[in-house]
Amino acid sequence: MKVADLLAALPPRPLGALPFPRHLLGAFRRKSITFCTGLTDEGTPVYWFQSRSFTLDLRLPGLDDTALTHRQGWVGDTLWDAQRGEMSWSVARSYQPRNQWPEPARLAFIGNSVLEFAPSGAYVEDWRQLAAPGPLLGLRLHLLREHATGTDHAMDGGLIVAGAHMALARSRLPAIDAALSTTPSLDHAMAQGIASAAQIASYEVSVALDSAHITHTTIPARHGEQLLQGDFAVEADGQVHQHCTIDGMACTLVYTIDVHEPDFAFATQTPTTPEGQAWLEAERGHLERNARVLR
């Protein structure tokens, strides 16, 4: 079955008690990052997809021509500090061999915007919710099985569907990631022959916006392709299997279900006081004249 069939076949797996604010669930585009130096970046494509317990993140500082060793993408377990109102991430395996964003996120909400403040004051990021009401599906990848040999490989990654948007992350094979974890940078790894360009590029994070086709990815050759290739099956134990071919290797990817809300209302507004609402109504004529929903 394809992803639409999978969404129809899967029983609901409700969120239950969510440790962090519901405003953080969905698909987000970074509108801007402003640094303490006064510099602001509004051009780098950055996307953040949030499921119940894990996050997918893609950053391409060189836009669609980002060099092999400069691409950024990861999957991480989501951690929430309710006392501080901070989100952080436990990232075991990333595209890069080191954590380039070590600070937790101190968060505030206004409308469809999530403002992320670095506790150090180094930067603030403005994220915009992209998802409209629709499915929220989170599948966490944990195993790749080679058909030819029957070998199982422990993997990290996942698939998040948020409304009309999807994101996929898949780690490298464990031996490659283990070798890269000993290096200070991907440039060093290539220079020392620790990993080849193809091995480095085998860590995939891809995003498909308003489509089943990839719009942004760590693997440029995949741009425009179907994000999800191969067929899904729901197993008796509740796991989801995806039968596919990766770099010519027939395999099965094994996922566990993190969440499945078939019709989820993603947060795009925040409350105000009665006085604030009255002011908005009274001044609507000029306040909304040049305003629009920005995603």
Describe the fold and architecture:
The protein is globular and about 70 Å long. A hairpin with a 5-residue loop joins strand 10 (134-146) and strand 11 (152-162). The strands form two sheets. Strands 1-3-4-5-6-7-8-9 form an eight-stranded antiparallel beta barrel. The protein has an eight-stranded antiparallel beta sheet with strand order 14-13-12-11-10-17-16-15, with helices on one face. The two termini are 31 Å apart. It is mainly beta and 295 residues long. The longest helix has 9 residues, at 274-282. It folds into two domains: 3-11 and 132-264, no CATH class; 22-130 and 266-287, Lipocalin (Beta Barrel). Helices cover 13% and strands 41% of the residues. It has helices at 3-9, 174-180, 186-191, 197-201, 274-282, 284-287, and strands at 26-35, 40-41, 46-50, 54-59, 72-81, 86-90, 105-110, 113-117, 123-129, 134-146, 152-162, 165-170, 204-208, 216-217, 231-234, 240-246, 249-264.
